[in-house]
Design brief:
- The protein is α/β, with parallel strands linked by helices.
- It is built from 14 helices and 16 strands.
- The strands form four sheets. Strands 4-12-11-10-9-5-8 form a seven-stranded mixed beta sheet, with helices on both faces. Strands 1-2-3-15 form a four-stranded mixed beta sheet.
- Strand 9, helix 7 and strand 10 form a beta-alpha-beta unit.
- Helix 1 packs parallel to helix 13.
- The structure holds pyridoxal-5'-phosphate.
Length: 458
Amino acid sequence: MTTLAMPHRTGIAPARVHALARAERARYEAANPCSRSLAARSAEHMMFGVPLHWMNDWATPFPLQVAEARGARLVDVDGQTRIDFCLGDTGAMFGHSPPAVTQALQRQAARGLTTMLASEDAATVSALLAERFGLPRWQFAMTATDANRFVLRWLRAATGRRVLLVFNGCYHGTVDDVFVDLVDGRAVQRASLLGQVHDLTATTRVVEFNDLAALEAALAPGDVACVLAEPVMTNIGMVLPEPGFWERAIELIQRHGSKLVMDETHTLSSGPGGYACAHGLKADAVVVGKALGGGMPCAAYGFSAELAAQAEAAKRAAPPGHSGIGTTLTANLLAMAAMRAALTELMTPAIFATLHARCTRLADGLRAVIAKHGLPWCVTQVGARCEFQFIATPPRNGSEAGAAMDPSLEQALHLALLNRGVMITPFHNMMLVCPDTTDADVDRLLAAFDEVLGLLAE
Ligand SMILES: Cc1ncc(COP(=O)(O)O)c(C=O)c1O
């Protein structure tokens, strides 16, 4: 048996992956001279050569430099157009620079950017959010990370409980409290966290998704302020809830006097009110960010009437002074104008129906290509987003999803797709469609995927 023919868990021999990665790196280097020289210039005054260090974690040998992005397309500084299925990892889920939002921004830009005061847009946006997400009381933030951080504070203050409960493999932005993993059944603080001096395991409990017995045991001490969860895990590859999981979990959470916070930042792809609304699930709080402002930085969180009353009571009972919640630019006039436009003109049932149909075409197409190449991979779809994973059966929890990952294969594949004009999300295998994504765009991705799998499986 030759090395190339050696079987591997993913169905692809590692030697094939390395050969593809080598060839695709050379191809990228040759095709992107302007990106290369701009990256070199950027390296002079930016740490890691990029505005945010993880922009280096794309599969490219040096960062691709963007010139402009519109709709489903992105043009780089070498003048090459890529069809974008990453869409800013959901920030641009309604397309790059959607006209409804850019026009609202232009109108607002001439009338004030930020004032630290409320406006008519705020009243309208909060009413629209209440209607969409079925929760009556709202507050705002600049990012989903901030929204989660603030919600956690409110929940601890409102319930008088200290403990946060999360699911293994979760991601809710850079909220320190969630970076606790389950390792051999024990909660362990993530070693990669920089500068963290607190023992997060003292106040964060972690269980596997879809494990009701573990959830109940973790809630039993009666000290859990809230369970913070995505309704579908999307950040360690996708993990769907098993039928009945959430209904039973909600019962358990209520029985133990805890609260459920649904982070719908990614699962907004399910419909105008997110996954929970689409599936009739009732949370005490919901967090939405990223696409909520059509690409402008803003986020929001909503509370049930009961939770809002508890939170307001906690604030009134506290001594005057800093609450630890809020930032100066939160709910600025531009952000409010962007959310109003996105909520009224983009987050509509008609647009979601188009997105879902197109994504189904993509997910079905991916399954067909995978089957053609006889690979033991699965595809999961949640509304407008879908993901292929290097595992035959969809994972049931974060541990299974994490074990299915293969960073070398992922990187080689992503780079090869990028070199063929299509871009998917780094760190895992997620693809998102936007209203501007056409059937032809989907077919182009499928053709590139087919070609690359052909090279890998040769
Ligand atoms: C579920 C979820 N919540 C929150 C966040 C944080 O969003 P942001 O980075 O915009 O703060 C992310 C980011 O990927 C996310 O996936």
